[in-house]
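Question: does this match?
>
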Amino acid sequence: MALKPTIYKFKIALSNLDSNFFDQLELTVAQHPSETPQRMLCRVLCYTLFAHRNISFTKGLSDVDVPDLWSVSNDDHPLLWIEVGEPSLDRLKRACRKAEEAIVVCFKDRSKVWWEGIEAKAAGLNLSVLQFNESALESLTNALARTTELSITITENTFYIAANAEPIEFEINTLK
């Protein structure tokens, strides 16, 4: 019998000052059985970072042909393709071919080593690579419940998150 995903509900008061976007989000997110809580939370934070671009979750780990998040045009052409983690170079090339813009969001401290290993080969790709702080995601995991309320402010490339009255702050590191 296959394991089922764990469902989480998020109520998020979002203030993204960098993109002048403000909203009250209610998200239902499925955590794949093979996915860590940190990776799932990284997907949620990616959603908040790019919510102003009409972003949506995909089947992610369940479908290798789509990214974790994306924004598509009215004719289903990918405008924005977001990969979470450390995808292969082939996956990055496919993302850059299919979408107008491709972004990778890493969330491990060792992601710099991964990026340095493929940076030269990925130099010609129209790709942005961001890195979230691993210890901040672990702190956020401690506040995670099946129903979680968050207050998130994004300004000057920094996340300010209030989760269960515990403040979490981290800067978004740009690798490319």
